[in-house]
Specification:
Layout lengths: L13 H26 L3 E4 L1 H8 L8 E6 L1 H10 L6 E8 L18 E6 L5 E6 L5 H13 L7 E9 L16 E6 L20 H12 L3 E9 L6 H6 L1 H5 L13 H7 L12
Parallel strand pairs: 2-5, 2-6, 6-8
Antiparallel strand pairs: 1-3, 3-4, 4-5, 7-8
């Protein structure tokens, strides 16, 4: 730009500088977003034998898959099923989010999502899930787990904890009726659930809902048993409520009819039990 006196001045544009700053900020935001997505990715770690088989393009041969979601559901399996020496730990999932933190070198014992396989019948698989899976990770967790399983003749049973405060009913619920089970199943499920169906307007959420939706789309026989309880934390009465759900599996999974006191004491905190109805 030339002045009246013939000087040549450089043209300065604030708009150009702002565009450059905005571009740098967008690139930085995009990098942060990618790093966050990578950090929130669900990772499955299997034992070498299973990993090698999956890398070869094979699927886990699975006739019955039992998924326990929540502390009472998971501890029910620990007390009544996994106490026998008939199960091997075959894998675990690592999840990072606002409520679950992955520790480097985390073992299956430290994970909130562990997979077990029956020794006598390797086609029977159990998963205990006690860690929080965020909403943006539900689809990812479900896809990755079921992508490892053979779908043909697969039967899925989901046991899920829920607070009775979230249960909507027209009639008053007496304390004598709590805890209780409700069920939902896919159209491919041909059995008879051990309890009545979940009434409207109640819905499933979280992993149980994601698994049921996935199995409905892929025509996998699946039933979800939701246990509504008024007790916070592990509770032997709530755990006992799940028993009828697994009796339908017959010889696939054998329940311990009367677990020892030491076993119960290990998995259940019997003191300072509270109700969450009035919290």
């Amino acid at each position: 730009m030339a002045t009246f006196f013939g000087e040549v001045l450089s043209v300065y544009s604030r708009a150009v500088e702002e565009d450059e700053e905005e571009l740098e900020e967008n690139e930085e935001d995009e990098q942060i977003r990618r790093e966050l997505e990578e950090k929130r990715e669900v990772h499955l770690q299997w034992i070498p034998e299973v990993s090698e088989s999956l890398r070869s393009g094979n699927k886990l041969q699975c006739s019955d898959f039992v998924l326990a979601v929540g502390h009472n559901a998971a501890r029910f399996l620990s007390v009544c099923v996994l106490t026998s020496a008939n199960w091997d730990t075959v894998g675990h999932a690592s999840v990072w989010n606002e409520r679950s933190r992955v520790v480097t070198g985390q073992t299956s014992d430290e994970s909130g999502c562990v997979f077990y396989r029956q020794k006598d019948n390797p086609s029977v698989l159990i998963c205990q899930l006690t860690c929080y899976i965020a909403e943006d990770q539900l689809f990812q967790w479900t896809e990755k787990v079921f992508d490892c399983l053979q779908h043909r003749e697969l039967n899925v049973t989901v046991l899920s904890d829920s607070s009775v405060a979230d249960y909507k009913a027209a009639d008053y619920l007496s304390n004598n009726s709590i805890p209780f089970l409700r069920s939902l199943h896919t159209s491919a499920f041909r059995g008879q659930p051990v309890c009545q169906s979940l009434e409207q307007p109640n819905i499933l959420t979280g992993i149980p809902a994601a698994v049921l939706n996935h199995c409905q789309v892929h025509r996998i026989a699946t039933v979800v048993y939701q246990c509504y309880s008024d007790v916070i934390g592990p509770d032997s009465v709530t755990m006992e409520t799940y028993k009828p759900a697994l009796t339908k599996l017959g010889k696939s999974i054998r329940l311990d009819p009367s677990p020892s006191t030491d076993v119960l004491r290990k998995f259940v905190r019997s003191t300072d039990i509270q109700s969450n109805l009035y919290i």
